[in-house]
Amino acid sequence: MLKLTxxxxxxxxxxxxxxxxxxxxxxxxxxxxxLQMVEQRQQEQIPNTVLIVEHTPVITLGAxxxxxxxxxxxxxxxxxxxxxxxxxxxxxxxxxxxxQLVVYPIINIKQLGLxxxxxxxxxxxxxxxxxxxxxxxSRRKRGMPGLWIGNKKIASIGVHIARFVTYHGMAIxxxxxxxxxxxxxxxxxxxxxxxxxxxxTGKHYSMGLLKGKLSQLLINHFSAxxxxxxxxxxxRWLHRPLPAGAAYTLTSDxxxxxxxxxxxxxxxxxxxxxxxxxxxxxxxxxxxxxTRNCKFCSVPKGKPAPPDPEEPARLAQMTRQLGxxxxxxxxxxxxxxxxxxxxxxxxxxxxxxxxxxxxxxEILTPDFRNCQQQAxxxxxxxxxxxxxxxxxxxxxxxxxARGGGNYQESLNLLKMAKEKFPEIQTKSSIMxxxxxxxxxxxxxxxxxRAVGCDxxxxxxxxRPSKDSLPxxxxxxxxxxxxxxxxxxxxxxxxxMSSPFTRSSYLAEQQNTNSKLTYAV
Length: 520
Hints:
Elements: E1 6-7, E2 18-25, H1 27-42, E3 49-55, E4 58-61, H2 74-79, E5 83-86, E6 94-96, E7 100-106, H3 116-133, E8 139-141, E9 144-149, E10 152-162, E11 165-173, E12 193-194, H4 197-201, H5 207-222, H6 228-232, H7 246-257, H8 263-266, H9 272-277, E13 283-285, H10 311-322, E14 326-331, H11 342-355, E15 360-364, H12 372-379, E16 386-388, H13 398-401, H14 407-420, E17 426-432, H15 438-450, E18 455-460, H16 477-490, E19 494-497
Parallel strand pairs: 2-3, 4-5, 10-12, 13-14, 14-15, 15-16, 16-17, 17-18, 18-19
Antiparallel strand pairs: 1-2, 3-7, 4-6, 7-11, 8-9, 9-10, 10-11
Helix pairs in contact: 3-5, 10-11, 11-12
C-alpha cells in the first residue's frame, strides 16, 4: 500500500474511522489505492478508512455512458495536461483539479446500518455542514446527487459499492479553476454550471485547515450510526439485498430521465430493489417537500413549490415506458393548497388514462385536512380507482409519530370515500413496532372495518433516517401471519401483512393469500 503524505490532526485516536489526508496527487494513483483498500476492507484487514485528497487536473467518466459528454477532444485535453479516465463509479463526467476537496470513504455500509440512499444523503449532509462553516448555503436536488446553490452545482457525488464496501465519493469545489468544467457536460446534465466557495464568497482558505474540518465532520456523522454489534442483532428476516439488476437500472434511468419523484426513494423504502426489478414504482406527485413533519417519515418538511402543470404528462410517459398496468399515485401533505392537491390527483389520473387506457389506478392520499368533502367531489371526476389513506399507527402514538394528523379525521375520510363511492375499494395501512400494544392494533383494525375499509396492509416500522423515531420492537413473521388471519376474520377482503409490507407493496396483486418468505 502506498504511503500517504499526511495524517489528519483532527482525527481522534479512538475514532472508528482511519482518516488519511493527501496533498495534490494524480488520480490514477489514488484510484489504485482505493481498489487495493476496498479489497482489504472486504476481508476485514483494515478498518473503515477515508481518503481526503486534492487531484492534479483530470476528467473522469462514470459508468452511465449517456452522461459522459466531452466538449473538448481528448487530444487537446492531453496537450493541456488534463488526464481523461474511464471509471466504474455512478454518475457521468466530472472533473478534479487542485483547490477542490475530494473525499473517498472506503467503508462497509452494511456494518454501519446504511443503505445506498442513506449513505449518499450522509455524504450530502457532511458537505452541507462544511459549506455552512464557510458561509455558503447549499441544498440538495432530488434525483441529482450532489449539492447546489440555485442552478449552479458546487459538489458532485459518484459512488460505487462492492460487497457492501464503498469507494469513489464526493468532490467539493473550494477554490479550484472552474474552467476545467467547460470541457464537459457536468454529470451529463445539460446547461449545468459549476460554482465554488471562492466564487460565492470571494475568500481563499487554507486547504489543510479545511481537510481538518472535513475530518471532524466525517467522524461526527459516521460514528453516530449503530455499531456492527448492534447491526448483527437485526433479525434475520429483515435482511434485504442491495438494489441491482438490469430491470432495476432501466426503471431508475426512466424515472431520472423524466424527473419523476417516487415514494420509493423519498421514504427510503426497503422494497425499492425488488419493486424496481419488477419494473414498478409508486409515483410521488406534488413535489417532495411536505407541509408536515411526521417523525416516522424521512420526506423533508418545508415550503413546497406550486404544483407542476407538466407532471401529469410526465407521469403518463413514465407509465407508458414502464408498461404499467397498475399505477399507485401518492403525494406529500399539501396543507398549503385549498383542495389539498385533489385536483392534481384528478389531472394525473385522467392524463394517464387518456394515454394508457388499460392502466388501473390506486391513489394513496393525504387526509385533506379542512377540505375532505371538497377533495372527494373533485376526485369523483377521476373514478374508478382504489382509494387509500393510511391510518399509520394507533391513536395513542399520534402525538409523537404523526404531527398534524388526527386519527378520527383519517377514519372520517375513509368513511366518506366509501359512502360517496360505494363501488370502489378503500384501503389503509398500519405500521407495527412503534410501541403499540396488541389490543390497540386490534382496535384500529375494528375501527377501519367499522368505516367500511376493504383492504389493509400491515408492516414493520423501520427507521428511515437518523432523525426519525427509533424502532421499539421487531415483530416476528409469525406475528404478522397472526395479524393477517385476524384481519381476514374481521372482514377485510384484501390483506397484506409481513415485515416488509408497505402501503403499495404488491398492490397490483388480486390474490393476497400466498405466504411471503423471508431471507435467513
